[in-house]
Protein 1
Amino acid sequence: MLPWGHAAFGYLIYSVYSRWKIGHPPIGLAVFALGLGTLFPDLIDKPLTWTIPLLPYGRSLSHSLITFALIVLVLWTLIRHPDQRTLVGAFTIGYFSHLVADSIHPAFTQEYAGLGYWLWPLTSVPESEPRSFIEFFLTLEATPMVVFGGVLTVVGLVVWVYDGMPGIKDLYAEYVQ
């Protein structure tokens, strides 16, 4: 899934969670922590595979549930203030939503070997060749997953606007008065 699809997927999940758990749409910095979480695995794995070929595959180190659990455990242990824990919770939901979103295609196509990244390095992942981000976007095709991500992005944007554009609205209210 492309970055904006991951952000939309995570936002939709967090919007439902926020209404259920907190009783209102998402607000404040939690939306930015969520956004960082939705992109975090790719911000680590893609550069370390494509640009600096240290990892074997674009879904390995930070796409692993092992790494996910370690990062969340460290954050939860270090951060004690309730407001900051809200940020950790939003980041965690975003991060996990990324892992779930990346598993949709392999699960539906029953290519379960494509889910090996969930337990990397205990399980294997395919090897990939280094390439540039520009090359990736120039060779992108309108596959069903790309189209699904586009539709998800539109739905996510509509819900975000319906929610009152949290994050942006909060920054505007804080700094433009």
Protein 2
Amino acid sequence: MSRQPKISKRTLEQWLSEYAVSHQNLINKKIHWLCVPTIFMSLLGMGMSLSVWFTLVLSALVLLFYIRLSTPLFLAMGLFILICLSVMAAMPWGFKAWAAVFVVAWIGQFIGHKIEGKKPSFFEDLQFLLIGPAWVANSLMQRK
């Protein structure tokens, strides 16, 4: 029997609530507010250095995940992707530089979770890797 990937029917609020369980400590939150966007941008940077078209198609698929959850989130993440692409155009680093940024940011994330005393949410469900950026975007939208 083959196993099909399961797309969750959770709402954005449910995703964010579950994600927040392992992100209560203020230091961990601050680390995530810095490292999650950095990881997202570094992934785009690594991707763009390998294949522009593949990265753009993958970005479009990620945006489809977000629009299913929330139009404002979709717009915020679309804007964030455009900002990332602009930063990458201004800083034309290669794959190795973006990979180094990726590794350092992940080390930061794991330090944050060590401080929090809880394991990262994506250990339970890989879709939480897309919820992290949504959580940061939602936090910024709530601060208005």
